[in-house]
Design brief:
The chain is an all-alpha fold. 83% of the residues lie in helices and 3% in strands. It has a five-stranded parallel β-sheet with strand order 1-2-3-4-5. Helix 2 links the parallel strand 1 and strand 2. It holds the Pfam family LRR_6. It comes from Emberiza fucata.
Protein backbone atom coordinates (compact mmCIF):
# COMPACT_ATOMS: atom_id res chain seq x y z
CA UNK A 1 0.00 0.00 0.00
CA UNK A 2 2.84 2.41 0.80
CA UNK A 3 4.49 1.59 -2.51
CA UNK A 4 1.29 2.41 -4.40
CA UNK A 5 0.88 5.62 -2.41
CA UNK A 6 4.47 6.72 -3.03
CA UNK A 7 4.31 5.82 -6.74
CA UNK A 8 1.28 8.07 -7.01
CA UNK A 9 3.08 10.90 -5.22
CA UNK A 10 6.06 10.80 -7.62
CA UNK A 11 4.25 13.03 -10.11
CA UNK A 12 2.35 15.10 -7.55
CA UNK A 13 3.17 18.83 -7.38
CA UNK A 14 0.95 20.08 -4.54
CA UNK A 15 1.85 17.99 -1.47
CA UNK A 16 4.44 19.83 0.65
CA UNK A 17 4.59 17.63 3.79
CA UNK A 18 4.40 13.80 4.14
CA UNK A 19 4.08 11.98 7.49
CA UNK A 20 4.53 8.15 7.45
CA UNK A 21 5.20 7.69 11.14
CA UNK A 22 4.80 4.15 12.50
CA UNK A 23 3.94 2.28 9.25
CA UNK A 24 6.45 -0.61 9.54
CA UNK A 25 8.18 0.26 6.25
CA UNK A 26 10.67 -2.32 4.94
CA UNK A 27 12.80 -2.87 1.85
CA UNK A 28 10.05 -2.22 -0.70
CA UNK A 29 8.93 0.90 1.18
CA UNK A 30 12.51 2.23 1.39
CA UNK A 31 12.99 1.69 -2.36
CA UNK A 32 9.69 3.46 -3.03
CA UNK A 33 10.83 6.35 -0.80
CA UNK A 34 14.11 6.59 -2.74
CA UNK A 35 12.20 6.71 -6.02
CA UNK A 36 9.90 9.37 -4.56
CA UNK A 37 12.87 11.52 -3.49
CA UNK A 38 14.44 11.22 -6.94
CA UNK A 39 11.30 12.19 -8.87
CA UNK A 40 9.20 14.44 -6.61
CA UNK A 41 10.03 18.19 -6.51
CA UNK A 42 7.34 19.56 -4.19
CA UNK A 43 7.74 17.75 -0.84
CA UNK A 44 9.64 19.85 1.69
CA UNK A 45 9.06 17.83 4.92
CA UNK A 46 9.20 14.04 5.35
CA UNK A 47 8.51 12.25 8.69
CA UNK A 48 9.54 8.54 8.92
CA UNK A 49 9.58 7.97 12.71
CA UNK A 50 9.13 4.39 14.09
CA UNK A 51 9.65 2.48 10.84
CA UNK A 52 12.91 0.49 11.39
CA UNK A 53 14.37 1.45 8.02
CA UNK A 54 17.95 0.82 9.24
CA UNK A 55 17.36 -2.90 9.56
CA UNK A 56 17.20 -3.29 5.78
CA UNK A 57 20.59 -2.22 4.43
CA UNK A 58 19.80 -2.49 0.71
CA UNK A 59 16.54 -0.62 1.01
CA UNK A 60 18.13 2.07 3.23
CA UNK A 61 21.03 2.48 0.76
CA UNK A 62 18.47 2.97 -2.04
CA UNK A 63 16.70 5.52 0.16
CA UNK A 64 20.03 7.35 0.70
CA UNK A 65 20.68 7.40 -3.05
CA UNK A 66 17.31 9.09 -3.57
CA UNK A 67 18.16 11.60 -0.83
CA UNK A 68 21.49 12.30 -2.57
CA UNK A 69 19.70 13.07 -5.84
CA UNK A 70 17.01 15.21 -4.19
CA UNK A 71 17.51 19.01 -4.06
CA UNK A 72 14.12 20.08 -2.68
CA UNK A 73 13.61 18.31 0.70
CA UNK A 74 14.34 20.59 3.68
CA UNK A 75 13.28 18.55 6.75
CA UNK A 76 13.75 14.80 7.40
CA UNK A 77 12.70 12.89 10.57
CA UNK A 78 14.35 9.45 11.03
CA UNK A 79 13.84 8.87 14.76
CA UNK A 80 13.66 5.28 16.09
CA UNK A 81 14.58 3.58 12.81
CA UNK A 82 17.38 1.33 14.17
CA UNK A 83 20.03 2.98 11.99
CA UNK A 84 23.53 1.58 12.73
CA UNK A 85 26.95 2.99 11.85
CA UNK A 86 26.77 1.54 8.29
CA UNK A 87 23.44 3.24 7.65
CA UNK A 88 24.92 6.42 9.13
CA UNK A 89 27.83 6.14 6.63
CA UNK A 90 25.36 5.81 3.73
CA UNK A 91 23.42 8.76 5.08
CA UNK A 92 26.65 10.79 5.43
CA UNK A 93 27.57 10.08 1.79
CA UNK A 94 24.12 11.28 0.74
CA UNK A 95 24.37 14.41 2.87
CA UNK A 96 27.81 15.22 1.41
CA UNK A 97 26.15 15.81 -2.00
CA UNK A 98 22.76 17.09 -0.87
CA UNK A 99 22.33 20.88 -1.07
CA UNK A 100 18.78 21.44 0.21
CA UNK A 101 18.29 19.57 3.51
CA UNK A 102 18.39 21.93 6.52
CA UNK A 103 17.03 19.81 9.42
CA UNK A 104 17.76 16.11 10.17
CA UNK A 105 16.50 14.25 13.25
CA UNK A 106 18.38 10.98 14.04
CA UNK A 107 17.51 10.56 17.70
CA UNK A 108 17.16 7.15 19.31
CA UNK A 109 19.09 5.10 16.75
CA UNK A 110 22.31 3.00 16.95
CA UNK A 111 24.75 5.26 15.11
CA UNK A 112 27.63 4.96 17.57
CA UNK A 113 31.14 6.39 17.29
CA UNK A 114 31.82 5.46 13.65
CA UNK A 115 28.50 6.81 12.47
CA UNK A 116 29.07 10.04 14.39
CA UNK A 117 32.49 10.46 12.78
CA UNK A 118 31.02 9.82 9.32
CA UNK A 119 28.35 12.45 9.93
CA UNK A 120 30.98 14.88 11.26
CA UNK A 121 33.12 14.36 8.16
CA UNK A 122 30.15 14.94 5.84
CA UNK A 123 29.51 18.29 7.51
CA UNK A 124 32.82 19.55 6.10
CA UNK A 125 31.36 19.33 2.61
CA UNK A 126 27.68 20.00 3.41
CA UNK A 127 27.12 23.71 3.94
CA UNK A 128 23.30 23.80 4.09
CA UNK A 129 22.48 21.56 7.10
CA UNK A 130 21.64 23.77 10.08
CA UNK A 131 20.09 21.33 12.61
CA UNK A 132 21.16 17.77 13.38
CA UNK A 133 19.76 15.83 16.36
CA UNK A 134 21.91 12.89 17.56
CA UNK A 135 20.64 12.25 21.07
CA UNK A 136 20.30 8.60 22.16
CA UNK A 137 22.82 7.23 19.62
CA UNK A 138 25.81 6.44 21.85
CA UNK A 139 27.83 9.20 20.18
CA UNK A 140 30.70 10.63 22.30
CA UNK A 141 30.33 14.15 23.65
CA UNK A 142 33.31 15.61 21.82
CA UNK A 143 31.84 14.49 18.48
CA UNK A 144 28.52 15.99 19.48
CA UNK A 145 30.31 19.25 20.32
CA UNK A 146 32.19 19.15 17.00
CA UNK A 147 28.90 18.54 15.17
CA UNK A 148 27.32 21.47 16.99
CA UNK A 149 30.28 23.67 16.10
CA UNK A 150 30.05 22.64 12.44
CA UNK A 151 26.30 23.33 12.43
CA UNK A 152 26.91 26.72 14.07
CA UNK A 153 29.56 27.40 11.48
CA UNK A 154 27.05 26.53 8.71
CA UNK A 155 24.46 28.80 10.27
CA UNK A 156 26.94 31.66 10.57
CA UNK A 157 28.11 31.10 7.03
CA UNK A 158 24.55 31.02 5.77
CA UNK A 159 23.82 34.24 7.64
CA UNK A 160 26.94 35.85 6.16
CA UNK A 161 26.03 34.68 2.68
CA UNK A 162 22.48 35.94 3.11
CA UNK A 163 23.77 39.30 4.33
CA UNK A 164 26.24 39.48 1.45
CA UNK A 165 23.48 38.56 -0.98
CA UNK A 166 21.23 41.18 0.59
CA UNK A 167 23.99 43.75 0.30
CA UNK A 168 24.59 42.76 -3.31
CA UNK A 169 20.88 43.06 -3.98
CA UNK A 170 20.79 46.43 -2.24
CA UNK A 171 23.79 47.62 -4.22
CA UNK A 172 22.28 46.35 -7.45
CA UNK A 173 19.01 48.10 -6.61
CA UNK A 174 20.87 51.30 -5.82
CA UNK A 175 22.84 51.03 -9.05
CA UNK A 176 19.60 50.44 -10.93
CA UNK A 177 17.98 53.39 -9.15
CA UNK A 178 20.99 55.56 -9.99
CA UNK A 179 20.80 54.44 -13.59
CA UNK A 180 17.07 55.14 -13.66
CA UNK A 181 17.65 58.58 -12.18
CA UNK A 182 20.37 59.25 -14.72
CA UNK A 183 18.14 58.05 -17.50
CA UNK A 184 15.34 60.27 -16.21
CA UNK A 185 17.67 63.23 -15.97
CA UNK A 186 19.01 62.52 -19.44
CA UNK A 187 15.46 62.24 -20.79
CA UNK A 188 14.58 65.51 -19.05
CA UNK A 189 17.65 67.09 -20.63
CA UNK A 190 16.62 65.70 -24.03
CA UNK A 191 13.11 67.09 -23.48
CA UNK A 192 14.54 70.50 -22.60
CA UNK A 193 16.72 70.37 -25.73
CA UNK A 194 13.66 69.40 -27.80
CA UNK A 195 11.72 72.28 -26.28
CA UNK A 196 14.59 74.64 -27.10
CA UNK A 197 14.60 73.28 -30.64
CA UNK A 198 10.86 73.86 -30.91
CA UNK A 199 11.25 77.38 -29.58
CA UNK A 200 14.09 77.96 -32.01
CA UNK A 201 11.93 76.67 -34.86
CA UNK A 202 9.15 78.97 -33.71
CA UNK A 203 11.54 81.93 -33.61
CA UNK A 204 12.76 81.00 -37.08
CA UNK A 205 9.18 80.86 -38.32
CA UNK A 206 8.48 84.21 -36.68
CA UNK A 207 11.60 85.72 -38.26
CA UNK A 208 10.60 84.29 -41.64
CA UNK A 209 7.12 85.78 -41.17
CA UNK A 210 8.72 89.10 -40.27
CA UNK A 211 10.94 88.97 -43.34
CA UNK A 212 7.88 88.19 -45.45
CA UNK A 213 6.02 91.10 -43.86
CA UNK A 214 8.92 93.43 -44.55
CA UNK A 215 9.09 92.13 -48.10
CA UNK A 216 5.38 92.81 -48.47
CA UNK A 217 5.90 96.31 -47.05
CA UNK A 218 8.69 96.88 -49.56
CA UNK A 219 6.44 95.62 -52.34
CA UNK A 220 3.73 98.00 -51.19
CA UNK A 221 6.22 100.87 -51.20
CA UNK A 222 7.30 99.78 -54.66
CA UNK A 223 3.66 99.87 -55.79
CA UNK A 224 3.31 103.31 -54.18
CA UNK A 225 6.36 104.50 -56.11
CA UNK A 226 4.85 103.13 -59.30
CA UNK A 227 1.62 105.01 -58.57
CA UNK A 228 3.70 108.14 -57.98
CA UNK A 229 5.40 107.54 -61.32
CA UNK A 230 2.03 107.36 -63.06
CA UNK A 231 0.90 110.52 -61.30
CA UNK A 232 4.11 112.27 -62.38
CA UNK A 233 3.48 111.17 -65.94
CA UNK A 234 -0.03 112.63 -65.71
CA UNK A 235 1.38 115.91 -64.39
CA UNK A 236 3.94 115.89 -67.22
CA UNK A 237 1.12 115.51 -69.73
CA UNK A 238 -0.77 118.39 -68.08
CA UNK A 239 2.36 120.55 -68.16
CA UNK A 240 2.82 119.71 -71.83
CA UNK A 241 -0.74 120.87 -72.51
CA UNK A 242 -0.09 124.13 -70.61
CA UNK A 243 3.09 124.66 -72.66
CA UNK A 244 1.14 124.15 -75.84
CA UNK A 245 -1.38 126.75 -74.67
CA UNK A 246 1.43 129.22 -73.89
CA UNK A 247 2.91 128.56 -77.31
CA UNK A 248 -0.42 129.28 -78.99
CA UNK A 249 -0.73 132.51 -76.99
CA UNK A 250 2.78 133.56 -78.11
CA UNK A 251 1.82 132.84 -81.72
CA UNK A 252 -1.27 135.01 -81.30
CA UNK A 253 0.87 137.83 -79.86
CA UNK A 254 3.30 137.61 -82.79
CA UNK A 255 0.38 137.69 -85.25
CA UNK A 256 -1.01 140.82 -83.52
CA UNK A 257 2.41 142.47 -83.69
CA UNK A 258 2.71 141.63 -87.36
CA UNK A 259 -0.72 143.14 -87.97
CA UNK A 260 0.33 146.30 -86.15
CA UNK A 261 3.48 146.51 -88.22
CA UNK A 262 1.53 146.03 -91.41
CA UNK A 263 -0.98 148.73 -90.38
CA UNK A 264 1.85 151.14 -89.53
CA UNK A 265 3.42 150.49 -92.94
CA UNK A 266 0.11 151.17 -94.64
CA UNK A 267 -0.27 154.44 -92.76
CA UNK A 268 3.23 155.52 -93.68
CA UNK A 269 2.50 154.75 -97.30
CA UNK A 270 -0.71 156.68 -97.17
CA UNK A 271 1.09 159.66 -95.54
CA UNK A 272 3.71 159.59 -98.27
CA UNK A 273 0.97 159.48 -100.90
CA UNK A 274 -0.81 162.33 -99.15
CA UNK A 275 2.45 164.38 -99.02
CA UNK A 276 3.02 163.71 -102.74
CA UNK A 277 -0.57 164.71 -103.70
CA UNK A 278 -0.09 168.32 -102.67
CA UNK A 279 -1.76 170.99 -100.93
CA UNK A 280 -5.05 170.30 -102.65
CA UNK A 281 -5.76 167.49 -100.51
CA UNK A 282 -4.67 169.08 -97.23
CA UNK A 283 -8.19 169.48 -96.01
CA UNK A 284 -8.88 165.91 -96.91
CA UNK A 285 -5.68 164.91 -95.38
CA UNK A 286 -6.39 166.87 -92.23
CA UNK A 287 -9.75 165.19 -92.08
CA UNK A 288 -8.16 161.88 -92.86
CA UNK A 289 -5.42 162.61 -90.33
CA UNK A 290 -7.97 163.31 -87.64
CA UNK A 291 -9.75 160.10 -88.56
CA UNK A 292 -6.41 158.29 -88.68
CA UNK A 293 -5.40 159.80 -85.35
CA UNK A 294 -8.62 158.54 -83.89
CA UNK A 295 -7.99 155.18 -85.36
CA UNK A 296 -4.47 155.28 -84.08
CA UNK A 297 -5.76 156.09 -80.62
CA UNK A 298 -8.10 153.17 -80.82
CA UNK A 299 -5.33 150.96 -82.09
CA UNK A 300 -3.03 152.19 -79.33
CA UNK A 301 -5.68 151.47 -76.80
CA UNK A 302 -6.03 147.99 -78.27
CA UNK A 303 -2.25 147.56 -78.20
CA UNK A 304 -2.14 148.70 -74.59
CA UNK A 305 -4.85 146.27 -73.73
CA UNK A 306 -2.98 143.52 -75.54
CA UNK A 307 0.23 144.47 -73.70
CA UNK A 308 -1.62 144.42 -70.42
CA UNK A 309 -2.98 140.99 -71.26
CA UNK A 310 0.53 139.83 -72.10
CA UNK A 311 1.83 141.20 -68.80
CA UNK A 312 -0.97 139.44 -66.94
CA UNK A 313 -0.16 136.20 -68.74
CA UNK A 314 3.54 136.70 -67.97
CA UNK A 315 2.66 137.29 -64.32
CA UNK A 316 0.57 134.13 -64.35
CA UNK A 317 3.45 132.21 -65.93
CA UNK A 318 5.83 133.59 -63.29
CA UNK A 319 3.42 132.52 -60.52
CA UNK A 320 3.11 129.11 -62.14
CA UNK A 321 6.90 128.85 -62.21
CA UNK A 322 7.11 129.87 -58.55
CA UNK A 323 4.43 127.33 -57.66
CA UNK A 324 6.36 124.71 -59.59
CA UNK A 325 9.57 125.56 -57.73
CA UNK A 326 7.73 125.50 -54.37
CA UNK A 327 6.08 122.19 -55.15
CA UNK A 328 9.39 120.71 -56.36
CA UNK A 329 11.09 121.92 -53.17
CA UNK A 330 8.32 120.41 -51.06
CA UNK A 331 8.53 117.16 -53.02
CA UNK A 332 12.29 117.13 -52.53
CA UNK A 333 11.85 117.61 -48.79
CA UNK A 334 9.23 114.90 -48.61
CA UNK A 335 11.35 112.57 -50.72
CA UNK A 336 14.31 113.24 -48.40
CA UNK A 337 12.11 112.57 -45.39
CA UNK A 338 10.83 109.36 -46.97
CA UNK A 339 14.40 108.32 -47.78
CA UNK A 340 15.49 109.05 -44.22
CA UNK A 341 12.59 107.02 -42.90
CA UNK A 342 13.46 104.17 -45.26
CA UNK A 343 17.08 104.32 -44.12
CA UNK A 344 15.96 104.30 -40.47
CA UNK A 345 13.73 101.30 -41.12
CA UNK A 346 16.58 99.55 -42.94
CA UNK A 347 18.90 100.24 -40.03
CA UNK A 348 16.34 98.99 -37.54
CA UNK A 349 15.73 95.87 -39.60
CA UNK A 350 19.48 95.29 -39.91
CA UNK A 351 19.92 95.78 -36.16
CA UNK A 352 17.07 93.37 -35.41
CA UNK A 353 18.57 90.81 -37.79
CA UNK A 354 21.99 91.23 -36.21
CA UNK A 355 20.49 90.87 -32.73
CA UNK A 356 18.65 87.73 -33.81
CA UNK A 357 21.83 86.30 -35.34
CA UNK A 358 23.84 87.09 -32.20
CA UNK A 359 21.15 85.54 -30.01
CA UNK A 360 21.05 82.43 -32.19
CA UNK A 361 24.83 82.14 -32.15
CA UNK A 362 24.85 82.54 -28.37
CA UNK A 363 22.12 79.97 -27.97
CA UNK A 364 23.93 77.51 -30.23
CA UNK A 365 27.18 78.05 -28.31
CA UNK A 366 25.42 77.67 -24.99
CA UNK A 367 23.67 74.48 -26.10
CA UNK A 368 26.98 73.13 -27.40
CA UNK A 369 28.70 73.97 -24.11
CA UNK A 370 25.90 72.35 -22.15
CA UNK A 371 26.13 69.26 -24.35
CA UNK A 372 29.89 69.07 -23.86
CA UNK A 373 29.55 69.56 -20.10
CA UNK A 374 26.84 66.89 -19.91
CA UNK A 375 28.98 64.51 -21.98
CA UNK A 376 31.94 65.10 -19.71
CA UNK A 377 29.86 64.65 -16.56
CA UNK A 378 28.31 61.47 -17.96
CA UNK A 379 31.77 60.07 -18.84
CA UNK A 380 33.10 60.98 -15.39
CA UNK A 381 30.14 59.35 -13.69
CA UNK A 382 30.42 56.23 -15.81
CA UNK A 383 34.12 56.00 -14.97
CA UNK A 384 33.37 56.46 -11.29
CA UNK A 385 30.69 53.79 -11.37
CA UNK A 386 33.03 51.45 -13.23
CA UNK A 387 35.78 52.10 -10.66
CA UNK A 388 33.31 51.46 -7.81
CA UNK A 389 32.07 48.32 -9.54
CA UNK A 390 35.64 47.09 -10.10
CA UNK A 391 36.55 47.78 -6.46
CA UNK A 392 33.41 45.98 -5.29
CA UNK A 393 34.18 43.05 -7.59
CA UNK A 394 37.72 42.86 -6.24
CA UNK A 395 36.53 43.00 -2.63
CA UNK A 396 33.86 40.37 -3.25
CA UNK A 397 36.36 38.13 -5.03
CA UNK A 398 38.81 38.53 -2.14
CA UNK A 399 36.05 37.73 0.37
CA UNK A 400 35.03 34.68 -1.62
CA UNK A 401 38.62 33.51 -2.08
CA UNK A 402 39.22 33.96 1.65
CA UNK A 403 35.99 32.06 2.51
CA UNK A 404 35.59 28.30 2.19
CA UNK A 405 36.07 26.73 -1.20
CA UNK A 406 32.54 25.32 -1.36
CA UNK A 407 30.69 28.46 -2.41
CA UNK A 408 30.56 27.46 -6.03
CA UNK A 409 26.94 28.18 -6.60
CA UNK A 410 27.07 31.57 -4.94
CA UNK A 411 30.12 32.48 -7.05
CA UNK A 412 28.38 31.30 -10.23
CA UNK A 413 25.33 33.38 -9.40
CA UNK A 414 27.49 36.42 -8.70
CA UNK A 415 29.36 35.88 -11.98
CA UNK A 416 26.04 35.68 -13.83
CA UNK A 417 24.81 38.83 -12.13
CA UNK A 418 28.04 40.62 -13.00
CA UNK A 419 27.87 39.49 -16.59
CA UNK A 420 24.27 40.66 -16.78
CA UNK A 421 25.20 44.00 -15.19
CA UNK A 422 28.10 44.40 -17.60
CA UNK A 423 25.89 43.55 -20.54
CA UNK A 424 23.26 45.99 -19.32
CA UNK A 425 25.91 48.66 -18.80
CA UNK A 426 27.34 48.04 -22.25
CA UNK A 427 23.87 48.21 -23.76
CA UNK A 428 23.13 51.41 -21.88
CA UNK A 429 26.47 52.87 -22.88
CA UNK A 430 25.70 52.01 -26.49
CA UNK A 431 22.27 53.56 -26.07
CA UNK A 432 23.84 56.70 -24.61
CA UNK A 433 26.36 56.83 -27.45
CA UNK A 434 23.53 56.58 -29.96
CA UNK A 435 21.69 59.39 -28.16
CA UNK A 436 24.86 61.50 -28.20
CA UNK A 437 25.27 60.80 -31.90
CA UNK A 438 21.67 61.84 -32.48
CA UNK A 439 22.28 65.00 -30.45
CA UNK A 440 25.36 65.82 -32.54
CA UNK A 441 23.31 65.28 -35.69
CA UNK A 442 20.59 67.56 -34.37
CA UNK A 443 23.24 70.15 -33.51
CA UNK A 444 24.61 69.93 -37.07
CA UNK A 445 21.06 70.35 -38.38
CA UNK A 446 20.61 73.42 -36.20
CA UNK A 447 23.88 74.83 -37.52
CA UNK A 448 22.73 74.17 -41.09
CA UNK A 449 19.45 75.94 -40.31
CA UNK A 450 21.42 78.91 -38.95
CA UNK A 451 23.53 78.99 -42.11
CA UNK A 452 20.37 78.90 -44.22
CA UNK A 453 18.94 81.77 -42.21
CA UNK A 454 22.17 83.71 -42.71
CA UNK A 455 21.86 83.11 -46.45
CA UNK A 456 18.26 84.34 -46.33
CA UNK A 457 19.41 87.45 -44.47
CA UNK A 458 22.15 88.01 -47.07
CA UNK A 459 19.55 87.67 -49.82
CA UNK A 460 17.31 90.14 -48.02
CA UNK A 461 20.23 92.54 -47.70
CA UNK A 462 20.96 92.16 -51.42
CA UNK A 463 17.32 92.87 -52.19
CA UNK A 464 17.50 95.91 -49.91
CA UNK A 465 20.56 97.11 -51.79
CA UNK A 466 18.75 96.62 -55.09
CA UNK A 467 15.82 98.56 -53.73
CA UNK A 468 18.17 101.33 -52.58
CA UNK A 469 19.68 101.48 -56.07
CA UNK A 470 16.20 101.57 -57.52
CA UNK A 471 15.35 104.40 -55.09
CA UNK A 472 18.45 106.27 -56.25
CA UNK A 473 17.24 105.92 -59.84
CA UNK A 474 13.85 107.20 -58.77
CA UNK A 475 15.55 110.15 -57.07
CA UNK A 476 17.32 111.01 -60.29
CA UNK A 477 14.04 110.73 -62.18
CA UNK A 478 12.40 112.99 -59.61
CA UNK A 479 15.23 115.54 -60.09
CA UNK A 480 14.63 115.41 -63.83
CA UNK A 481 10.87 115.82 -63.36
CA UNK A 482 11.00 118.68 -60.85
CA UNK A 483 9.59 121.21 -63.41
CA UNK A 484 6.42 119.17 -64.19
CA UNK A 485 4.40 119.18 -60.99
CA UNK A 486 1.12 121.12 -60.67
CA UNK A 487 -2.56 120.70 -59.70
CA UNK A 488 -1.95 117.41 -57.76
CA UNK A 489 -0.78 118.72 -54.42
CA UNK A 490 -3.87 117.65 -52.50
CA UNK A 491 -3.76 114.07 -53.83
CA UNK A 492 -0.05 113.90 -53.03
CA UNK A 493 -0.68 115.15 -49.49
CA UNK A 494 -3.34 112.48 -48.97
CA UNK A 495 -1.04 109.79 -50.35
CA UNK A 496 1.78 110.99 -48.11
CA UNK A 497 -0.57 110.79 -45.12
CA UNK A 498 -1.42 107.24 -46.10
CA UNK A 499 2.28 106.43 -46.33
CA UNK A 500 2.79 107.93 -42.87
CA UNK A 501 -0.04 105.81 -41.45
CA UNK A 502 1.42 102.68 -43.03
CA UNK A 503 4.87 103.54 -41.67
CA UNK A 504 3.39 104.02 -38.21
CA UNK A 505 1.67 100.64 -38.50
CA UNK A 506 4.97 99.04 -39.51
CA UNK A 507 6.67 100.75 -36.56
CA UNK A 508 3.95 99.32 -34.27
CA UNK A 509 4.54 95.83 -35.74
CA UNK A 510 8.28 96.20 -35.17
CA UNK A 511 7.69 97.28 -31.57
CA UNK A 512 5.41 94.26 -31.03
CA UNK A 513 8.14 92.04 -32.43
CA UNK A 514 10.63 93.64 -30.01
CA UNK A 515 8.31 92.88 -27.10
CA UNK A 516 8.00 89.26 -28.33
CA UNK A 517 11.81 89.02 -28.49
CA UNK A 518 12.04 90.34 -24.93
CA UNK A 519 9.53 87.66 -23.82
CA UNK A 520 11.61 84.99 -25.54
CA UNK A 521 14.72 86.26 -23.78
CA UNK A 522 12.93 86.05 -20.42
CA UNK A 523 11.81 82.49 -21.22
CA UNK A 524 15.39 81.54 -22.12
CA UNK A 525 16.64 82.99 -18.82
CA UNK A 526 13.97 81.00 -16.92
CA UNK A 527 14.98 77.80 -18.73
CA UNK A 528 18.63 78.43 -17.85
CA UNK A 529 17.65 78.87 -14.20
CA UNK A 530 15.70 75.60 -14.30
CA UNK A 531 18.72 73.83 -15.82
CA UNK A 532 20.97 75.22 -13.08
CA UNK A 533 18.54 74.04 -10.39
CA UNK A 534 18.34 70.57 -11.94
CA UNK A 535 22.14 70.32 -12.15
CA UNK A 536 22.49 71.36 -8.48
CA UNK A 537 19.88 68.79 -7.41
CA UNK A 538 21.61 66.12 -9.46
CA UNK A 539 24.96 66.96 -7.85
CA UNK A 540 23.43 66.75 -4.36
CA UNK A 541 21.85 63.36 -5.18
CA UNK A 542 25.21 62.09 -6.49
CA UNK A 543 26.96 63.25 -3.31
CA UNK A 544 24.34 61.46 -1.20
CA UNK A 545 24.76 58.26 -3.22
CA UNK A 546 28.56 58.46 -2.88
CA UNK A 547 28.18 58.81 0.88
CA UNK A 548 25.91 55.75 0.96
CA UNK A 549 28.39 53.79 -1.15
CA UNK A 550 31.21 54.75 1.24
CA UNK A 551 29.08 53.56 4.17
CA UNK A 552 28.41 50.26 2.40
CA UNK A 553 32.14 49.86 1.71
CA UNK A 554 32.87 50.40 5.40
CA UNK A 555 30.24 47.77 6.26
CA UNK A 556 31.87 45.35 3.81
CA UNK A 557 35.24 45.97 5.45
CA UNK A 558 33.72 45.27 8.88
CA UNK A 559 32.21 42.04 7.55
CA UNK A 560 35.57 41.02 6.07
CA UNK A 561 37.18 41.64 9.47
CA UNK A 562 34.50 39.50 11.09
CA UNK A 563 35.04 36.76 8.49
CA UNK A 564 38.79 36.82 9.12
CA UNK A 565 38.15 36.61 12.88
CA UNK A 566 35.76 33.71 12.33
CA UNK A 567 38.37 31.98 10.20
CA UNK A 568 40.90 32.28 12.96
CA UNK A 569 38.39 30.92 15.46
CA UNK A 570 37.52 28.04 13.10
CA UNK A 571 41.22 27.27 12.65
CA UNK A 572 41.65 27.21 16.43
CA UNK A 573 38.61 24.97 16.79
CA UNK A 574 39.86 22.65 14.05
CA UNK A 575 43.27 22.41 15.72
CA UNK A 576 41.57 21.76 19.05
CA UNK A 577 39.37 19.04 17.48
CA UNK A 578 42.35 17.52 15.73
CA UNK A 579 44.29 17.39 18.99
CA UNK A 580 41.28 15.92 20.76
CA UNK A 581 40.75 13.30 18.05
CA UNK A 582 44.43 12.39 18.06
CA UNK A 583 44.37 12.06 21.85
CA UNK A 584 41.21 9.99 21.65
CA UNK A 585 42.69 7.76 18.91
CA UNK A 586 45.87 7.27 20.91
CA UNK A 587 43.85 6.48 24.02
CA UNK A 588 41.67 4.01 22.13
CA UNK A 589 44.73 2.30 20.59
CA UNK A 590 46.33 1.94 24.08
CA UNK A 591 43.06 0.50 25.40
CA UNK A 592 42.92 -2.14 22.61
CA UNK A 593 46.54 -3.15 23.23
CA UNK A 594 45.93 -3.52 26.95
CA UNK A 595 42.77 -5.58 26.31
CA UNK A 596 44.68 -7.89 23.95
CA UNK A 597 47.36 -8.39 26.51
Amino acid sequence: GVRLLLNGLCTNTTVKSLDLKGNNLRTMGAEALGKLLRQNKSIRSLTLEWNSLGMWEEGFSFFCQGLRANNFLQRLDLRNNQINHQGAGELAMALAQNTSLQELDLRWNNIGLLGGRALLNCLHSNKTLKRLELAGNNVPGDILKAVEQALDHNQVREAILSEAQNQVNILSKEVLSLKDEKNKQFMDFVDTVDKQKEERARSEKISAARVSQLQEALDEQYSIMNSLKTKLQMTEAALALSEQKVHTLGELLSAVKQEQNSVAECHSRELQQQKQEGADREARLLHDLSAASEKNLLLRNQVDELERKCKVQQDQLFQVKQDLTNTTAELKLRAVEAEERLEMEKRRFKQSLEDMESLRVKEVDRVAQQMEASERSMHDRIQRLEAIRISLDEELSQAKAAALADRGRAEEELIKVRSQVRLEEQQRLEHLEEKLRLMTESRDEAQNCCLKQKEMVAEAQAKAKQLSLYADGLKRRLEELQQYVDRKEEEKVTELNKVKVELQEQIGHLEAERTAQDGLREKIAALERQLKALSSNHREALLDKEGEISLLLEKLRMKEAEISRMREEEAQRASFLQNAIMAYVQGSSLGTHSSRK
